[in-house]
Amino acid sequence: ARVSNLYGVAATRAGIFDPFGELQEHDVFLFVDEVAFSRLALPLHRANAQEQYALAEDLLHYSPEPRVIERLLESAEFLGRSSAVAFYKARYAQAFPERFIEWLAMEPHVPPEAAHGAPGSQAQAPASGTQP
């Protein structure tokens, strides 16, 4: 029940402020990928941008779908990783051309404070060094 609670609307989450804070390892043993996937629904901001980037990159192997790719691109943009953005945009356009065009039309994808990249960030290639 606590794992399914992660997918609910925030207002209906049985009063849990941080739905991930109360989960114990035994609660998610069988749902590790599902819980990780649900974390992508958290709002993107400076404090979690690096975590969201790493999570989305890992999840591409579990669920290579637009929702995951979009969070990867948004967090890479937020972190100022222009080479990663270019790499994954090309992959996204190739894998899901129609959705990619729709996504481009919804710009901007990152909060205004990230428009120039996070302080101290630098353009980096994808962490895995391999194609997703």
Architecture blueprint of SSEs:
Layout: H1 2-5, H2 25-28, H3 32-39, H4 49-59, H5 66-79, H6 82-95, H7 97-105
Helix pairs in contact: 3-4, 4-5, 5-6, 6-7
Outline of this structure?
The protein is mostly helical and 132 residues long.
Outline, from the CA principal axes?
globular
One letter per element, helices H and strands E, the order comes to HHHHHHH
The number of domains is: 2
Give the strand tally. Answer: 0
Radius of gyration: 15 Å
- Assembly context of the chains: single chain
DSSP strand content:
under 5%
Low-pLDDT runs: 116-125
Helix content: 40-55%
Count of individual helical segments: 7
- Give the integer mean of the pLDDT values: 76
Largest sheet: none
Q: Determine the structural class based on helices, strands and strand pairing.
A: mainly alpha
How far is the first residue's CA from the last residue's CA?
Answer: 32 Å
Description:
The protein is mainly alpha-helical. It has two domains: 1-30, no CATH class; 40-132, no CATH class. The chain is 48% helix and 0% strand. It contains seven helices and no strands. The chain has helices at 2-5, 25-28, 32-39, 49-59, 66-79, 82-95, 97-105. Helix 3 (32-39) crosses helix 4 and helix 6 packs across helix 7. Mean pLDDT is 76; it is low at 116-125.
Features:
132 residues; mainly alpha
